[in-house]
Specification:
This protein is α/β, with parallel strands linked by helices. The chain is built from nine helices and eight strands. Helix content is 37%, strand content 19%. The structure holds SN-glycerol-1-phosphate.
Length: 221
């Protein structure tokens, strides 16, 4: 289901969204609603958002930032892993800990690992996950590693809050033979969506939903 997706709206359970905006976003024709956030994600606000999304006919996935906020009822689950972190906890440390506790309850068929290369040094996640800046050569090596050695289904190139380096994203897109290239960051209009459309498999749109929902709708091209 999600491997075929082209466009994803990312909703943060800790942010307010009114009913009419939510209705427009979920009925927009997007392929997937991804519920995901960094701060203040709780079982209560994830469940609250899921029940509102479930009033409409759209696929919904949860990115599990903390096992305590893993809520049943989504169509799919993503577990993030950060590739350019300096801290092993963000690659697999927290994940191993979670599996020690929850392995018996997990339906592995409905979970995908989502490896992130976080490129925007100013974004919250870069600092939160103790990332290091990646040069172009290292970036492409990471793409080959994730695609050909780890054989990941997805590689998430994260520029959250900023529009990325299109040429570099294009190199990744051309280098990946198996993984779907997921691009996120600074898609705020039809023009920016069109620019990244030809160089990525899946486009993720976040902040603009909260800043200007009408423009967010234009990103579906
Ligand atoms: C954030 O990649 C997503 O995790 C989307 O980025 O908020 O900049 O659209 P924006």
């Amino acid at each position: 289901m999600t491997r075929q997706a082209k466009h994803i709206f990312k909703l943060d359970p800790a942010k307010e969204i009114d009913d009419s905006t939510l209705k427009k976003i979920v009925n927009s024709g997007t392929d997937l609603i991804l519920v995901s956030g960094t701060d203040n994600v709780t079982e209560k606000n994830v469940y609250g958002l899921l029940s509102r999304i479930r009033e409409f006919d759209v696929a919904a996935a949860l990115e599990i930032s903390h096992p305590d906020a893993a809520v049943p009822g989504f169509d799919h689950y993503f577990v993030p892993t950060v590739i350019n972190t300096e801290d092993v906890n963000f690659t697999h440390g927290m994940l191993v800990e979670a599996l020690m506790e929850y392995h018996d309850f997990i339906d592995y068929e409905s979970i995908s690992l989502l490896p992130y290369i976080i490129m925007n040094q100013e974004c919250k996640a870069f600092k939160h996950a103790n990332c290091h800046a990646v040069c172009d050569e290292e970036f492409i090596a990471m793409i080959h590693m994730l695609d050909k050695l780890y054989k990941m289904d997805y590689i998430y190139i994260e520029y959250s809050g900023a529009f990325g380096d299109r040429e570099l994203v294009k190199e990744a897109y051309e280098a990946a033979e198996h993984a779907r290239i997921v691009y996120g960051g600074g898609i705020v209009s039809k023009e920016t969506a069109k620019e990244m459309d030809g160089v990525s498999d899946i486009m993720v749109v976040g902040n603009i939903i909260y800043d200007d929902a009408e423009r967010a709708l234009e990103t579906i091209i």
